[in-house]
Structure of Lon N-terminal domain-containing protein:
Amino acid sequence: MDQKCTKGSMAESKVSLKLLIDTKSKRVLFAEARKDFVDFIFHILAMPLATAISLLGKQGMVGCLSNLYDSVENLDDSYIQKGQNKDVLLKPNAANPMTSVPLLLLNDKPTANNFYSCNRNCSGYVTDEPTATCPNCRCLMNKSITNVAPPHVNEKSNEDGGFVKGVVTYMVTDDLKVKPVSTISSITMLSEFNIKDIGSLHEKEIKVGMNEALKLLKASLHSNKSFSHRRRQQQEPNFLRCSASSFSKKYHTNPPKSDDVVELPLFPLPLVLFPGAILHLQIFEFRYRMMMHTLLQTDLWFGVIYTNSASGTAEVGCMGEVIKHERLVDDRFFLICKGQKR
């Protein structure tokens, strides 16, 4: 089964979600969700692990599971047992709950297994593999039989499919606790978060589709703040931080009123800390010179590590990588402070 979602299906699979946000702490308290979203997050529990790995990619998984996936994928077929297929492990079918679920992550709905019995009508044996032989008469078990669903599947109450009923609104917390919305549960939730200023609360409606679903799935594996984690990644850039007094002294700015933290926005820059370890910073180009100057002259982050030798200055650790990157950057990207040379 192909589990990659096409752009067309992505556009069709959108569900609404209302977030209640505390603007002071910049966190999502909870989301109000309808049946379709709750069915989706419940379905994550039935999703095969290999499917999650293939959807999120190597960078989205915790630990070494992606290496295990790659090992199976790269293993030569000559090492696989006859009658076995690597797709059983790499592309397993999602568990079939005998009911329809809005799958935002999968293009195809899970299919039920076909079952077979002995073609000589030997009773007591059933298989899902038509090439199997009957233990009784040794004939092929290739006679198709019908799997009868439980009676409740056909009841009117389940016509909408999914797992939960659609007559109520559900509360989904930042750590993915799900419960029906009620006045008491809402008040209890505000009390748990110690919300005293109702005016700081803001309601925002969002649409959740394929991309958002993948981010939510990834956040749920990396953090206990699935909604806030995703919003932080979208809205808050990474920063280098130093004290305001130090920043003022280095860049000849007016003295600060208080020794607050100064934030310098960042763009991707790899710094080698030691063999095999690379720190990826995020630095905007117009702040590049400030970052370079501060890294090379202060011990606020890594410390300035220089040793003088007869042949000149020997650069140790990550500082050598910083200097190398500085020399490669065009002068027009630098903001040179008065009286200073590059």
Observations:
- Residues 243 and 261 are 5 Å apart (CA to CA).
- The chain has three domains: 1-48+93-105+154-235, 113-146, 239-333.
- The chain has eleven helices and twelve strands.
